[in-house]
Structure formats: structure tokens, C-alpha cells
Amino acid sequence: MKRQAAMAARMLGVVSALTLLAPTTSAATATAAPATRSSTQLLIDAYGDSTTLGITCSEGHCAAQARNAVAYLQQALHEHDGERVRVTNYGVGGTTAAQLRDGTGNRRAGPTAGLPWRERLAASPARIVLINYGINEVMQNQTPEQFYAAETTLVQTARALGKEPVLQTSNPMPDSRINARLAVMVAMTRRVAAEQRVPLVDQYGYVSSLPDWKTLMSDGAHPKPELYRLKAEQDYRVVEPLVRRLLDDTH
């Protein structure tokens, strides 16, 4: 167990070094979009750790993959709602909700990444904000109370700025001891969603219910592309009705 925990920690530690450029690429893609947007275009920002970014590991090598949950969600929304909806991936490996709140995560992840959450979000035209954390809080020995406070601030700030926050619980981790600690963080995310009355995508509950979910993990924390696709289906079920309502409100 200790060896598996150490391996998971090493993997999460190298993710930030391996994936510095991936979020920048996402942000650069968003910047390269035409300057004149349709008045009905709806933008979604996805914030989170390496499981948002889309890390998959194979033979000890971890890297961001094009087949990740955010990309699959973008594809599904395009198929249903067309080019009016665009999702930008701001996932950064090794980061926590508190770092997003304070602006102390990877500063290469877009032009506003070094700003505190309120300033960064105020500069974003996104209407919907996806928030996915929990794993690195466990690996960095944060307390559930610290995580609860950080996620509460993220949600309340997003709402104060006119955004629609959507919380996501982390996918489970194969190591049973680490996963038990993660379950406590997941409970905090569920609590924040209930208290703040915001949509919740309970990935932890969904993935844990799959009989073969451990075979869909590429290492101790990161899904294989097949599991990222299944996670995106859960995201879509919660996000698409919100997208539809916001699009309808623009007419």
C-alpha cells in the first residue's frame, strides 16, 4: 500500500512538470478564435487538476491526451448545440482548489492564470464554470475543512460575478487507503453543492459504481481515455440542460 501511495504521489508530482504547456495550448486556442463572436455563443471554462487536463499514464510516462473528458464534453455539446458552445480546458496538473482561489497555481495556464480567482474570473467571458478538485488536496495533506472553504469561495465568487458554477467530484483512486481519504474530500464537494445549491456531477459516485472501474485507470489517479469518455457523458447530462437554458435566455 505504501509503495502504491508513493507511486501515486510521484505521478501527481511529475504531472505539473510534464504538462506545463498543455493548458497554455488550450488557452491559446481560445485566444485564436475570431474576434467577433456570435451574440449567442456560450463559453464554458473547465478548471481542475490533471484529471481535468486529461493526463493518462502508460509504462511510467504521463502526458496530456487529446481524448480527455473536457474534449469529449466539447464534442457532445457541438453535436447537440453546434458551434454556439465552446469549452476551454484550464486544468493544471498538481494543483488544488486553494491554489485556484489564490492564483498560485501554474502561471503558464493562460494569460490570467497568475491572478486570484475573483480577478481571473472577472476577466473571463465564460458563462459556465466547471470546478474539479480533491485528489491533490489528499496528496498534499490538506484538511477537509480547508478544501470545503476553498470550494465554497470558488462557488460564491463565481455566482457573485454572474457565472454559473458546476461542481464535479474527483474520480476515485485504486489505492483503498488513499481512496478512503479522497471520499472525505468528495463529501466536502457534495456539501458545498448542496449548501450553495449548484449543479453537481458526482464522478466519484458514478465511477465507483462501475464494476470494472479500476481497469479503466491508467495509474493511481488518472483515467484511461475510455473512462474520460464515460466521465464526459456524466458531465454532459448535468451541463447540457444548463447550456440550453442560457442559450434560450439569449433569444
Labels describing this entry:
single chain; 251 residues; alpha/beta; Rossmann fold; two-stranded antiparallel ribbon; 11 helices; globular; disordered N terminus; SGNH_hydro; SGNH/GDSL hydrolase family protein; SGNH_hydro_sf; signal
Describe the overall structure:
It comes from Paraburkholderia sprentiae WSM5005. By secondary structure, the protein is of the alpha/beta class. Helix content is about 55%, strand content about 15%. It has a 5-stranded parallel beta sheet, with helices on both faces. Helix 9 links the parallel strand 6 and strand 7. The radius of gyration is 17 Å and the shape is globular. The model is unreliable at about 1-5 and about 15-40 (pLDDT under 50).
In terms of topology, how is this protein built?
Elements: H1 2-18, H2 21-31, E1 42-48, H3 50-53, E2 55-58, E3 61-64, H4 69-81, E4 85-91, H5 97-102, H6 117-122, E5 128-132, H7 135-139, H8 144-160, E6 164-168, H9 176-196, E7 200-201, H10 203-209, H11 225-249
Helix pairs in contact: 4-11, 8-9
Structural domain tally: 1
Beta-strand percentage? 5-15%
Query: H/E element string?
Result: HHEHEEHEHHEHHEHEHH
The portion of residues assigned to helices is: 40-55%
Strand order of the largest sheet: 4-1-5-6-7
The low-pLDDT segments are 1-7, 13-38
Rg, rounded, reads: 17 Å
CATH class term: Alpha Beta
Summed over residues and divided by their number, the pLDDT gives a mean of: 86
Q: What is the correct CATH architecture?
A: 3-Layer(aba) Sandwich
Structural category is alpha/beta
CATH topology: Rossmann fold
Major beta sheet summary: 5 strands, parallel
- Give the number of DSSP strands: 7
Instruction: State the shape.
Output: globular
How many alpha or pi helices? Answer: 11
The end-to-end span amounts to: 56 Å
